[in-house]
Design goal:
The structure is a homodimer of 245-residue chains. By secondary structure, chain A is of the alpha+beta class. Helix content of chain A is 43%, strand content 20%. In chain A, helix 4 crosses helix 5, helix 6 packs across helix 8 and helix 7 packs across helix 8. Chain A is globular. The first copy, chain A, binds a DNA duplex (30 and 30 nucleotides) through helix 8.
Chain lengths: 245, 245
DNA sequence: CGTTTAATTGAAAGCAGTCAAACTATGTGG
DNA sequence: CCACATAGTTTGACTGCTTTCAATTAAACG
């Protein structure tokens, strides 16, 4: 049951037959809970297990010297948490729980075998990896070439579009529990400046702060323009074949 | 013949049998030359062909509004130029020739079929995609959390290590034909500031400019420290299996 | 409640950007 | 081989976005 969000998400990216879905869904799974702030994986380590995020939010981070941290991606329920770990020898980043998380854990080897037996599964993993890579490139652009206010607006748009596409957000209110420090680490800014930019966005009615780490976005299109955002890079329906469906 | 650098590179990342190699090498290939500055692919377009860089250097770029450009990756001979295009519906970035380039072009469909028939090929593509993704994350960290001088030193280290690993650089002199403007676009800086930082690195004997777009690096370890560089993220020998060889 | 964490605000400093000009290298055509 | 055009590099002066430092306020939590 627990892997179904993952399979469903994969199926949107790349066509899967019933056998492919069942192949994944019938793998022995164990559930694991990670408290907010906890580590799901650490840089430099290998892992023989593969985790899927079932509930909560997680992120990948990398550290530079001087304790400088860059958050390089956000994971939402249905996302694979360590696709690289499935095929690379050692993780090149930490994976941490942003909120309390619930994950589904399977043995890597079983998944690799499945990918070997069923090309459509391998392909779906490939598509997922390529989409994540695309998002990563957009982040480079965001961090490297947009000003602070635009960066933040862009990240908010991205999260809105991603969560909405997966049915996790409905309406104009979005759950966005990043602290301003984390938001800064994701956009290459300091928490102080993030605060100023959020206040600026709020002053212009682009966002509204709500109780419980929620944000209301009165007009997505306005925020989209403020964030120089276009959803193309998210490849919400990614596969070349999936287009014909 | 032309695809052999690509196959050899793939084989280092992930184990390939003779049949896998031959499967790729026997595909119908055509060569294509692209002059420096020319476009190999454009954002938003699909392509039914797959290109491998045989000679020269290429890069991927993304544009923000205001003509701001971010170079999001560099390709060296042996690299696939548009792995995403093989499995995603539309390119999310431009691919351009940095210098005059020679590419090997094959039909995407043939390569997808091959990946479907031979799991090891699919896996090698996967590993290559994941490594590129890892590099992309490191670029985010570089752009987001390192100061200008460090960023440039880091990029120089990266290029040194990558080209050396592929036998394209020997000794302490490296071919590095990026203009300062391009270097700025790759690091999230302006050309003017890149110039200042290069002069600073040169003043400290970390780099030496040579004729013909070449750079001498007197001491790689010193530059490595200046660039906060560790090669882990390059996954030079990437596969979990490849470790046992 | 008291304690801790996060958000907010102000003032000052600094890194990188902008603008502008001069210089150098490279390549082309006469 | 020289004159010229073009592209890229270098330098200086100034501006400004973002950071840093510090202190206060608000919110979350046991």
């Amino acid at each position: 049951m627990t892997l179904s969000v993952f399979v469903e998400h994969l199926g949107v990216l790349s066509p899967l037959e019933e056998h492919d879905r069942e192949g994944i869904l019938s793998l022995p799974v164990s559930e694991k809970r990670i408290p907010a702030g906890g580590y799901i994986a650490r840089e430099g380590t290998a892992s023989s297990t593969f985790s899927v995020l079932i509930d909560g939010l997680a992120y990948c981070q990398k550290l530079a010297c001087f304790n400088a941290r860059q958050i390089v991606s956000l994971a939402i329920p249905g996302d694979a948490l360590d696709l690289p770990n499935l095929f690379l020898a050692a993780a090149d980043h930490d994976i941490r729980a942003l909120t309390d998380c619930e994950t589904a854990v399977v043995h890597s080897e079983l998944l690799r075998e499945l990918a070997q037996r069923r090309p459509a599964v391998a392909r779906a993993f490939m598509v997922k990896a390529l989409v994540e890579s695309s998002v990563s490139r957009e982040w480079s652009l965001n961090i490297g070439r947009r000003d602070a206010r635009t960066r933040i607006a862009h990240l908010l748009c991205e999260h809105m579009v991603r969560t909405r596409a997966r049915g996790l957000t409905t309406g104009d209110i979005m759950y966005f529990p990043l602290t301003q420090e984390q938001l800064g680490d994701a956009t290459g800014l300091t928490a102080v400046h993030v605060n100023r930019m959020l206040r600026s966005l709020e002053a212009d009615n682009l966002i509204e702060k709500r109780k419980g780490s929620q944000i209301r976005i009165p007009c997505v299109d306005t925020l989209r323009m403020a964030g120089d955002f276009s959803a193309r890079y998210l490849h919400l329906r990614a596969s070349t074949e999936a287009q014909n469906q």
